[in-house]
Amino acid sequence: MNIIVQKYGGSSVADTDKIKKIAEKISKRVNEKLKLVIVVSAMGKTTDNLIKMSKEISANPEPRELDMLLTTGEQVSISLLSIALNEIGVKSVSLNAFQAEILTTNDFNEARIIDIKTDKIHSLFEENDVIIVAGFQGITNEGDVTTLGRGGSDTSAVAIAAALKAKCEIYSDVDGIYTVDPRLHPKAKKLKYVAYDEMLEMASLGAKVLHSRSVEIAKKYGITLYCAATFSNEEGSYVMEENIEQPLVTGLSVMDNQTQVVITNLPVDYTFVNKIFQSAANENLNIDMISVIGNGSSLNISFTIIDDKKAKIDEALARLSKDYGEYNVHYYSGFSKISVVGVGMRSSSGVAAKFFKAMGGIPVKLVTTSEIKISALVEEAHKLEAVKSLTDIFEL
Ligand code: ADP
Ligand code: ASP
Ligand code: MG
């Protein structure tokens, strides 16, 4: 059986006309004697609106209840798409995560897929050509509904493709992977091939075109991802093993809403550093761009978090202060993290020099590097200037 997994994002299923158009597109593939698993997101801004409604009632909704709410979005779009397909004579059936047996951890709002049973999908293909599965959602061993984190439908699709050993195509409102988000830089170039490691960095550094967990799974199981636009025939991009000929820098990603946390005047006690990161991990907080500087008599620590996690980290630090006495914590918001990524950096020198040449007089607050990326924290007001000069200098 020749199976393909396709995923359509929120903007692709934003209204019933679009859903009908997607049904037509899918029917053409069915005519090529393919069986298709279609993963869809919630319609348009549904998930944002559901979150907004919950916040009108509570600033901190119970994570379990939030997931119960958010998963309704995908249930609307899977059923409408199935109705549209059956209407034009394509045999299809829709499944939520419970029915498709997408087993996850019980980390509500950020669950990870543990296993996907494929027996049901295989047996449904005996009677159907298309099986539509709700993206973004899962089910725990205890039968609770979970979600995989914002943008998680990509991960649903890739995990299903891995379980079925099928090809995976991701369709959205952009016709491929670009060197930079084309909304930020109109002259961004489309990449034909992107290596897994590059895409992983780009996604986790802010390029929301793919959920970073989806790229992790694709890499682990060797699934080539084809990313293209839903409503155009433009050739898209492939995310796959790296080529021999990789450019120095492949892409640039931007992540907004960054807060720098600066803790000063700490006693020189490195167990505290350990405690900070431990308590952040316990709260599932993502900490980045860490710097620890000791000047002999005291320690200064600085790191970044996403703005809306400020309250949580503040609580954690307040708890720790009971054991470690007085220290000063400052929060500075309004930053963006700008990163350049490329597996070609592994074998080249002088990338940092070029990076800072591009930054010119822009004040850089923090820098982190890995083998294949350089990230800088800059004020949001300098973001576009930095994007422009980095894309120029690295010929993106
Ligand atoms: P979907 O709803 O289909 O999942 P998303 O909105 O999550 O789509 O992702 C597509 C968006 O990702 C594009 O509209 C684009 O603005 C953004 N994007 C960010 N970085 C990149 C990049 N490097 N290449 C292409 N698109 C990018
Ligand atoms: N509907 C979910 C979201 O908006 C999942 C997704 O779009 O991938 O985050
Ligand atoms: Mg998305």
List the helices and strands and how they pair.
Layout: E1 3-8, H1 16-31, E2 35-40, H2 46-57, H3 63-87, E3 92-95, H4 97-100, E4 102-104, E5 113-116, H5 119-124, E6 130-134, E7 137-139, E8 145-147, H6 153-164, E9 167-172, E10 177-178, E11 190-191, E12 193-195, H7 196-204, H8 212-221, E13 225-229, E14 237-240, E15 251-266, H9 270-282, E16 288-294, E17 299-306, H10 310-324, E18 328-341, H11 351-359, E19 366-370, E20 373-379, H12 383-393
Parallel strand pairs: 1-2, 1-9, 2-6, 3-6, 9-13, 12-14
Antiparallel strand pairs: 4-5, 7-8, 10-11, 13-14, 15-17, 15-18, 16-17, 18-20, 19-20
The structure holds adenosine-5'-diphosphate, aspartic acid (ASP) and magnesium ion.
Magnesium ion binds next to loops.
Give a verbal description of the structure.
It is a single chain. The chain is an alpha/beta fold and 396 residues long. The chain folds into two domains: 3-173, Carbamate kinase, CATH 3.40.1160; 252-393, VC0802-like. Helix content is 36%, strand content 29%. The chain is built from twelve helices and 20 strands. The protein has helices at residues 16-31, 46-57, 63-87, 97-100, 119-124, 153-164, 196-204, 212-221, 270-282, 310-324, 351-359, 383-393, and strands at residues 3-8, 35-40, 92-95, 102-104, 113-116, 130-134, 137-139, 145-147, 167-172, 177-178, 190-191, 193-195, 225-229, 237-240, 251-266, 288-294, 299-306, 328-341, 366-370, 373-379. The strands form five sheets. It has an eight-stranded mixed sheet, sandwiched between helices. It has a six-stranded antiparallel sheet with strand order 16-17-15-18-20-19. It has a two-stranded antiparallel ribbon with strand order 4-5. Helix 2 runs antiparallel to helix 3 and helix 7 (196-204) runs antiparallel to helix 8 (212-221). The relative contact order is 0.11. The mean pLDDT is 93. Bound molecules: adenosine-5'-diphosphate, aspartic acid and magnesium ion. The site of magnesium ion (MG) has 4 residues, from loops. The site of magnesium ion has 4 residues, from loops.
